[in-house]
Structure formats: C-alpha cells, structure tokens
Amino acid sequence: MPSDNHAKHILLGVSGGIAGVKSAELVRHLRGFDAEIVPVLTRNAHRFVTPTALQALAGNRPRTDLWDAEAEAAMGHIELARWADAVVIAPATANILAKLANGLADDLLTTLCLATTAPLFLAPAMNNKMWEHPATQRNVVRLQADGATILGPADGEQACGEFGPGRMLEPVDIAEAVVAVLASPQCLAGVKVLVTAGPTREFLDPVRFISNRSSGRQGFALAEAARDAGADVTLIAGPVHLPSPTGVERLDVVSASEMKAAVAERVEVADIFVSVAAVADYRPSHMYEQKLKKSERATSEMRVALKENEDIIGSIANTHPRPFVVGFAAETHNPLDYARDKRLRKGMDAIVVNDVSDAAIGFDSADNAVTLIHDGGELALDKMPKRLVARRLVTEISALYHQARA
Ligand code: CTP
To answer: Ligand 1 centre from 347 Cα, in Å?
Structure first.
C-alpha cells in the first residue's frame, strides 16, 4: 500500500507501446521530485516493461487488474483515484486515447481516469500515420477539451522505421511538464529574482582572454524555473551560446567587472540573488589595446601578471539591507567541505555545490547532482537533468527565502 508521506502522488499509466521501455526512466525522474508513484499497466504494457522492473524503481507494487482482490483490499481503485495528485499516461497509445476520449472504463487504467479529478497528462506514442489519422486527431481535440494535457508527440525516426510525428517525448521532458504543474507552481509569485550565469572573460589583449568551462546551462535553467514559479526574473549572462528564456529580462556582459556593475545596478530591487556564474577570480593586470605580437614577448616563457577581481557575491552578502543570497560552487575535490567553508566565509544564506571532477555531471553535461547547504541543514539531490535540478532548487530556495522573511 502506498505510504502518505510524500509531497505528490502520481499514478503512472503505461499502455502497450514500444515506448513503454522508457517508463522506467520516467519513474526515476519523477521520483527525483519526491513524488510517490503507483504504476498502472494495461494488459499490453506487459509486452514492453515488466511489473517487477517498475516495482523496483517505483517502490510500490504496480497495479494491473481491476479484479485483483488482494490489491483492491489494500487500496480500492476509487481510493487510488482519490489518492492521485496527477495521472500521467506514458506511453499513451492510439487505443487508450480513443477509449479515454469516449469515456470507456473497461480496465483499471481507464476506470481510474474516469474516477479521478486529478489532472491528466497524456504522452502519445504511435506510428505517424496512426497519429495523423483523423480519428486520433479528433480524440485528441476531445481530450484537450475535457482538460487533459497532451505532451508531444515528438517528430523523428520511429520504431517501425518510418519518420514523422508519433515518437514519445523524452522522459525528462514529460517529467518536467508534470512537475511544472505540480511542484507548488507559484511559490515565487511577485518575488524579484536576480540570477547570474555563465563564465566571464578577462581580456589580455583584443583577441585573447582567460575564461572557464561554464556553459551557463544550470543558471539559465534556474532563471526559467524561477520564472515558472511566478518570479520576476533578471538574468545577467556571461558569454554563452544559449537562447534567452522568454519572459526573463536578460543582460549580457563579458568581464567580471561588467558583471559586477550589472549586478550592482539591479540588486537593490532584488529579493533573491542567485549567483550561478563562474566569475573569473583574476584578470590580467594590464589589458593591451593592440594584439600582443610574438616578437614583443621577451623569451620563450611568458608570464602574465594577474589582479584579483572583486568578489561579487561577497560584497552583496555584506551589504544591508540585502536580498536572500544563494551561491554556487563547482569543486573538483572535497566539495562539501569547501562549500561549507565558502558559504560561511562569503556570508551567503545558502550554497549549491557540485563535483565537476565527475564528467557525467560536470561542465557542459546535461545532468547535474548537487547538494544544497544552508543554515538549517543540507540536501543532496541525486543526478538528474539540469532543468529538473533547477526546479527542485527553486522550490527549496523559495521555502528558505519565505522562512527567512517570516
Ligand atoms: N563569485 C563571485 N565573484 C567572484 C568569484 C565568485 O560572485 N569574483 C561567486 C560565484 O558566482 C559563486 C561563488 O562566488 O556563487 C563561489 O565561486 P568560487 O569561484 O567557487 O569561489 P572562490 O571563493 O573563488 O573559491 P575558489 O578558491 O574555489 O575559486
């Protein structure tokens, strides 16, 4: 029987399509949000994923049959329908779309869908001709009119070898869409959040600079997640190759001193300052106005004198009044010890640390695994896509911010 101590309850319906093999990954992503999951398999889902595999990942016994007396005794299907905060069906075949559009209830999953008042998310997966068929399209329009959210499908190569729309969205995108609706969506409504992201460049001459490997992805994801949580977001970005998030004010800067000036200009009105940027600690003491020529360099060894850049977050954390201050630390060794020390030394309210020596979660990778350290404790988040890390962090930072102001 599912326990009740988790934030969100999700019924994960799996119907009989080849994309069912991805449902295990979806369970993993959703659990990263502390969601409690009860998988519900249709008769044909068994052909693509085993209840044993889903049980191991979800931690709850999958439900398969309306007439399973033992499961019903533990939690009847009407009770299960009430328990759910969301119903997610991934993959959703053409057949289940047709059944749901017509209100059929001829198995456990369709019965639950009729019996629940929780939001319904459908991630269609099927051959492109089946997807484009007027009957399927009619069903989709009907389901949307009934309040269901249709996630995808994506375009591309299909299991049958054809190309076109019908591929199930990636599990991470499905998880993100569901979590965006469920994870206290407006926890930062009306709050002004200032975020810095990306690297800075410290020029030696007009063509050469010192920089670092930050891609800006985690900072941009954080700005987006804060925006989705209702915040009014300003993003100060170093040189990165990322599109501007819609609805976010973006200011581009190059050097640490430009970033400092941009932050100083905006920080007075900010309620929360999240410094994700990998600000260069040093800049060349002298910037040459013209390109340095090899002949002008005296020997085969060249020394560049460096000057320390001012610590942006440190100076903000030491002003009064000041926003709620959250820093980031990318470390290659002893990450927790360094981060704990850094937080106290710079006077931050919280710090998020990740271990960049691990290539799977380091620079430029799509995933991250972080620990959030604050006055009241530490929270480790397992490896998950940066966009999901951002959503979790926004929920946690928002709770800390509101607590600090109370
Ligand atoms: N930071 C900043 N200004 C700087 C350098 C860093 O605001 N000039 C911020 C970063 O945005 C981040 C935090 O400080 O939020 C930690 O950055 P990091 O470079 O790890 O800190 P350092 O004190 O420079 O530590 P290290 O010795 O590891 O470089």
So the answer is: 12
Residues for the chain: how many in total?
406
Pocket test for ligand 1, best of 200, 211, 283, 346 (most atoms within 8 A of CB): 346
Q: Are residues 326 and 275 in contact, defined by beta-carbon separation less than 8 angstroms?
A: yes
For residue 334, give both structure tokens: 């002893």
CA distances from 353 to 61, 131, 145, 281, 385 (A): 35, 44, 44, 18, 15
Confidence check: pLDDT of 169 > 90: yes
pLDDT of 266-283, one tens digit each? 999 999 999 999 999 999
Q: Is 248 helix (H, G, I), strand (E, B) or coil?
A: coil
Per residue in 324-339, pLDDT tens? 999 999 999 999 999 9
Q: By the 8 A CB rule, do 167 and 127 touch?
A: no
pTM of this structure? 0.76
- Give phi and psi for 344, each to the nearest 5: -70, -45
Residue 113 known to be catalytic: no
The rounded distance, in Å, linking the Cα atoms of 13 and 91 is 8
